Structures are given as C-alpha cells and as structure tokens.
Amino acid sequence: MKLCVFQGTFDPIHNAHIRIAKFAQDYFKFDKFLFIPAKDPPHKNLDSEMSIHRFNMVKLALSESPEFEVSDIEFKKEGKSYTYLTILDLYKNYKIDGKINFLIGTDAFCKIQSWYESDKLKELVKFLVFDRGYKFDNLEIQKLVDCGYDFEFVNLEFFDVSSSDIREKLKSNIDVSDLINDKVGEYIKTYGLYKN
Fold first, then answer.
1. Which long-range CB contacts under 8 A does 55-60 form with residues at least 24 apart?
2. pLDDT at residue 77, rounded to an integer
C-alpha cells in the first residue's frame, strides 16, 4: 500500500490544507491518505480541551472527500504526540510499500532536525514538502541531502492562509467563510470556539 499522511494541529483545518492534500493525491495517486490531527503536539502549548474539537473539525472538513481518511491514532495514546512514534505505529497497522509519504510545509521542514528522534524518523518516511512561506537556499537543501533526508518539493503555489490568522480573525469577528469549510464554520459557531 502506498500511504501518505498529513499530520498537524489543524487548529482549525482550513481550505489550503484541503487543496494541498488534493493536489498531492491527484499527483501521486496514493492508495490511502490519512489526516492525523495531533492530540498533544510537543512543539505547541494547546488547550487539551480543544483536541477533540480539532479532531471533529477535520472529520467535518473531509466528510465530502472520500479519498481522505481521518486517523485517531494519536488519540489512543497517552502523552505527547511524537511523529516518530506515530509513524512506527502506522507501520505496525498497515502493509506499506516502500516508505510512508509525509506531507509537510517548508516552515516545519526547516526545523526537522530538531524533531524527536529525527535521525530515526528520516529512515522511515519520504517528506513531500510544500511551500509555506519559508524558502530553502541551496546550502540548506544540500545539508539535508547529506544528512540522509529523503524529500521532494511539491510544485504547488503558496497559499497565504494560516490557522493562526484564522483564529485572530475569529477573535475579531471577521468573516472567514472563504477560508474554511462551511461545516467547520458552523461547528466553530455552535461551540463558541476561538472567542478569546
């Protein structure tokens, strides 16, 4: 099975997330594509009560996209949601052809060497890197190649949309209906999320 995962906090999931995933799926034709909302990401201090809301919003956003699945793999475990441990679990749960493909933005990939067990993680995944505003120079790219990272840049235009911007707009009662799925927007209203 050719598997791709898109892991993130998705706080909240927005249209650019979906467009990036659809582009990758259309281009690479994965057998399975999993969105993995992080329950307790080690690099962010998130309200633990928001975890299930983030998970539910991803489910709603993907409800009309049968090519994608939402995984609760990180919600079945206690403690921090380390990517390396999640990837190990995926290899136990699925019969994978080659390496797991891992969709990641340039803003996160530039810090990949600081991730938990990054030297082990790089042996298990191929990173599919999309533009998130950070531009790699040739020296940085060569350093990652020399360190043994397996990666490919996905040729997709940069969408200047971020979850943090959406949260700020929601706090200020600015309309974000053009940035998020309608069902996600209704969920946010129903539960009064991102008010402060």
1. 56/187, 57/10, 57/12, 57/13, 57/184, 57/187, 57/188, 58/10, 58/13, 60/181, 60/183, 60/184, 60/187
2. 86
Q: What is the CATH number of domain 3-159?
A: 3.40.50.620
pTM of structure: 0.94
Among all chains, which residue has been given the structure tokens 């990939």?
109
Phi, psi of 166 (to 5 degrees): -65, -40
Phi-psi region of 29 (alpha: psi -120 to 50; beta: other; left: phi over 0): left
* Cα 187-189-190 angle, rounded to 5 deg: 65
Locate the domains of the chain by residue range: 3-159
List of E strands, 10-122: 32-37, 69-70, 100-105
The angle subtended at Cα 121 by Cα 25 and Cα 105, nearest 5°, is 45
DSSP state of 74: G
C-beta atoms surrounding 153 within 10 Å: 14
Residues of the chain with pLDDT under 70: none
